[in-house]
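I would like you to sit down with the pair of lines that follows and say whether tokens and residues agree.
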Amino acid sequence: MGKVESGSLPPKPKATAALRGGLSKGELVMKVPEAEEKVREAIVEIRKVFTNKKWCKWADAWLSGADRSVESAVSIAEQLARRAPTKTTPGRPASRAALLSMPAGNAALAAAIVARSSDELDQFAAMMLEEYVKRKALPPASKGGR
């Protein structure tokens, strides 16, 4: 890497450097069908325990293929970001809905990444998608909910 001047960004690494490092070209990208499957799995799992009406409506539309637009995915993710867990009274955990809003919002962001891609996701987009759909422990479904 070259010298970096104060206030400037280092040069973007080239794919050839990654290839020389032992990665194959196939590891630098993810095909859209594979990405869609990862997003579908995340949405289905979250849908089992998350009952936010707006998110569930979006999730159902995404799963059915009725609405897979970037705009709707980003919109629902932004709405859920406003519900992110905040500090509570000491000894009192954040609400179940607030805890679930983060993985649900992340699934929506992953859907937006897929919607922006035509054929395949580049390395950065694939890495972000993987992070957004990582399986994290979700609270169990509420006794009266779905």
The two ends are 53 Å apart (CA to CA). Residues 37 and 43 are 10 Å apart (CA to CA).
